[in-house]
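FW: tagging you since you asked about this chain on Friday. Here's the raw sequence from the shared folder, copied in full. Didn't touch anything.
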Amino acid sequence: MKLLVLFCLFAFSFGSFMSRANTPVSTYANASLYLTSTNSQQLSSANSTSSVGFADADAQPGLMDNSIFTHGASGMSATSYENETVSGFSDQLTITDPSLTGSSGTLEFHFLVTGTEAFAAVTPSVSLLTASASFTAPGASDNLFYSKDSSGNIVGTDFLGVPQTVVVPFVFGTPFTIDLTTDFTGLVEDLTGGGDATVSGTFSTTASTDNVKSLVSTLPNTSFTQKSASGANYFSIVSVPEPNGLLLAMAGLVALPFLKLRRFNPNSDVGGDEMAQDAEPR
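HL: got it, structure written out here
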């Protein structure tokens, strides 16, 4: 009997461990330097430094950092070098309200990419930065892209410093997955004839979630709980309660002593008249 109980406890503990181990949450970060003139031969990998620059990437749920520096000059081993840094995270969210289980709702997912860029190039060389950010969730997505070169030419829309908002549908009580990835590439090319070029950038990405709404209930101040598989708190909930009968009653109780003081103050004309009227025979 004791052996059976111990076996059951072990099975339960192992099952719980496996359940946590299979939690659908991940972060990913990779940075690489490439010799692009020879079929993108990789020179070095994540968080590395070499004669052609460095790359760094770091990620955790809700926060990512990337930095790159790419350098090239004539006389080096290639006519172009490419430096890429990628970071991202995937997490599972669950919004719960016992009174709304199984019904539909929406929330707003916000993310902001900020950073600085620097370019330098001696003709005929060129330095180029390309940047992209991608958010996906069931029923929602947002894909951003731009490129910028040392001459100031821009393709796409520069999204640095521009807050992004995506409305995400969900079902109360049902887990759903969100995924956010940022990708930055620094390229220097055409390094012949005395050309010299550099491109660098430092970037930070933050993410948050708020404005949870039910599509089947319009009651104010709907109570709900939220959790993420990673334990990260993306939510910033600000609730402004509406006046109700209890608050009005409390306001009346606060004002009551002042009303009594005014009614029975012998120095008050109003109070004196009322007391005189009370003293007259009926």
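FW: Confidence is low (pLDDT under 50) at residues 1-23, 237-282.
HL: agreed, and The chain has three helices and 14 strands.
FW: great, closing this out.
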